Amino acid sequence: MSTPPNTVPAVVNAPPPRCYHRREPGSSMPCGELAVVARLSPDWFAVAYFCREHAAPGDVEIPAEHVFRRVGLQLEVYIAGAGMSDAVARAEAVHRLDRAIQAIGGVADIAAVRSVMVRSWVQPQAREPIGAGKGRE
Ligand SMILES: [Zn+2]
């Protein structure tokens, strides 16, 4: 197997690899579950990762040092504080966001957290309870 060039950065803040399996040929949505094995390739950029369900004979344990594509997204997320305390609202929001990102196999790198008192004219809509059916705490 070839090794990646030095231009491929080594990172510490890395999410675990996720399964590459496509449930339907040509689908743009892979399985995406956390991977447990690697399918090695002679080319360093063609190593693939698979979950337990989609593992195949010949797959190997994921090497401690492994190469994958890390996707970063920049966005603003707003959540209503569940109280009036700035510190409590920020801490709770960070905790909930971190849990949500972990649930999709990601790692949060939160650069800033702020809360401000706001007014809104948006009328609340009937919704399912937050986390309904997904193991609320
Ligand atoms: Zn899978």
Envelope shape: elongated
| Strand line-up of the largest beta sheet | 2-1-3
Q: Classify the secondary structure makeup into a structural class.
A: little secondary structure
* Helix fraction by DSSP (H/I, runs of at least 4): 10-25%
* Radius of gyration of CA atoms, rounded to a whole number: 20 Å
Total helices: the number is 1
Q: Catalogue the unreliable spans.
A: none
E-strand count: 3
* Average residue pLDDT: 90
- The run of helices and strands is EEEH
Outline the structure in words.
The chain is low in regular secondary structure. The protein folds into two domains: 71 residues, no CATH class; 52 residues, no CATH class. 13% of the residues lie in helices and 6% in strands. The longest helix is centred in the C-terminal third of the chain and has 18 residues. The chain is elongated and about 60 Å long. The model has no long low-confidence stretch (mean pLDDT 90). The structure holds zinc ion.
List the helices and strands and how they pair.
Layout: E1 37-39, E2 48-50, E3 60-61, H1 86-103
Bound molecules: zinc ion.
How is this structure best summarized?
The protein is mostly loops. It is 13% helix and 6% strand.
What brief labels describe this structure?
three-stranded antiparallel β-sheet; elongated; 13% helix; 2 domains; little secondary structure; 1 helix; binds zinc ion; 137 residues
